[in-house]
Design a protein that fits this description.
alpha/beta, 2 domains, eight-stranded mixed β-sheet, two-stranded antiparallel sheet
């Protein structure tokens, strides 16, 4: 299996922990409105980005890019939040699963969700809708900065997805985010252990600086 240790070290965290670390650094990275098709889906990998636009007088493809995406990557599709046509479906899910991609994130909708469930392939989107994007949208650019849920995503940024949604870890801030997330995770684990042992929550939070964990 493809393993990138600089990415896999983030597997210990949840999206809420990374969101708190982003807040600590004053960074925007939480993708509003993007949810997993199934709550148990989890995804982690570097972004391979696709920018879509409306079809022109000369029709382009919805996407013959999938065979060029490296194993372990997350396919990030910016369809400008469109809810009336899809840019991901059955065949793309099959190929992505075979190529061992980590998942797909769509600012828009997908279809053929049953295939995603069957293959346990993580898809995160604004929802599902059966209408094809063919002859409605086309790929304008690949591996360029895109927007997903109001967050800028660049090729190579890390995306983490779980039941609570998707967060973006900018490549140039990986080290800082990792270390802050580690500190937050450890402090919250101390608090969990304390309250499970019968200690007061307010005392435990005060001891481990809970109210300052996300503050800049």
């Amino acid at each position: 299996m493809f393993v990138d240790e600089t990415v896999s070290r983030f597997s210990r965290f949840s999206t809420p922990t990374i969101s708190d670390a982003l807040d600590k650094l004053g960074l925007e990275g939480t993708c509003l409105g993007i949810r997993p098709l199934r709550p148990d889906f989890r995804m982690l990998g570097r972004a391979f980005t696709i920018q879509y636009g409306p079809i022109g007088s000369e029709q382009g493809t919805v996407g013959d890019y999938i065979d060029d995406v490296a194993a372990g990557s997350v396919v990030v599709l910016d369809n400008r939040g469109r809810m009336d046509c899809t840019v991901w479906g059955d065949i793309l899910t099959i190929v992505a699963s075979q190529r061992k991609l980590s998942g797909t994130v769509i600012d828009g909708v997908c279809r053929d969700s049953a295939r995603s469930f069957e293959l346990n392939y993580p898809v995160f989107s604004r929802g599902t809708y059966m209408r094809t994007g063919k002859d409605r949208v086309q790929v304008d650019a690949m591996n360029v900065p895109v927007s997903v849920g109001g967050v800028r995503v660049r090729p190579g940024d890390i995306l983490l997805g779980d039941a609570d949604g998707v967060v973006v870890i900018p490549a140039e801030q990986e080290e800082a985010i990792f270390h802050i997330a580690t500190s937050i995770d450890e402090a919250e684990e101390h608090i969990r252990r304390a309250v499970r042992s019968g200690r007061r929550l307010d005392d435990s939070r005060r001891e481990f600086n809970y109210h300052k964990l996300q503050s800049r």
